[in-house]
Amino acid sequence: MSLLDTLYYIVILTSLAVSIVFKKLWKHYFWLYFAVTIIIELLVLCKAPFITSRIYNYLDLFCIGYFGFIFFRELKRDKIIKIASISCIVLGIVFMFFSQTHYSILTGFLYSIYLIFVSLFWFYRKISDENRENNMLRLAFFWISSSLLLWAIFYIFRMFPMYFFVVSDLEFSNMLKTIFQIATIVSYMIFFKGLMCEK
């Protein structure tokens, strides 16, 4: 296990612990998100015989449902979030069904676009709200939205060259993987900052 892998697990395990210890975080079920993510990562790390890269598509669909749920509640049951979430889950399943590879790139791309959408939509709603918090840095969802936005952008740049460069340019593929690992760790650290906010 590399240093970046170790840092990744430290950050995500710490986030899981915090989301369990602090009762104020229970209402958003952050512990569930971190627990599912960790279980899948451990299954892949241990090379469980029944696991293929398709499991990450299942994680994509779970995360669309999960983030749809928490943003739906955060934005006072906004119908746009509900429609977008259901539509993306259905499309993601269709893309998986017709995918010729274990991991459906289109499902992963759809998940990234969804995260970008809900994050920017949250920013739009908060900025246009006349009764908004003056200091948005105090809001947990400011950091969570920023985290998801950062991760999704880097994931798109990592995902599309993934299958092409692993064959034609292994060194460049490894560099992209390292950059994405760093971006993932940073995004989880930003997410962790959101967990520690009072609002």
From TrEMBL:
The keyword Acyltransferase does not apply. This is YhhN-like protein. It comes from the Bacteria. Keywords: Membrane, Transmembrane, Transmembrane helix. The chain crosses the membrane at residues 6-22, 29-50, 56-73, 80-99, 105-124, 136-158, 178-196. It comes from Chryseobacterium taiwanense. The keyword Membrane applies.
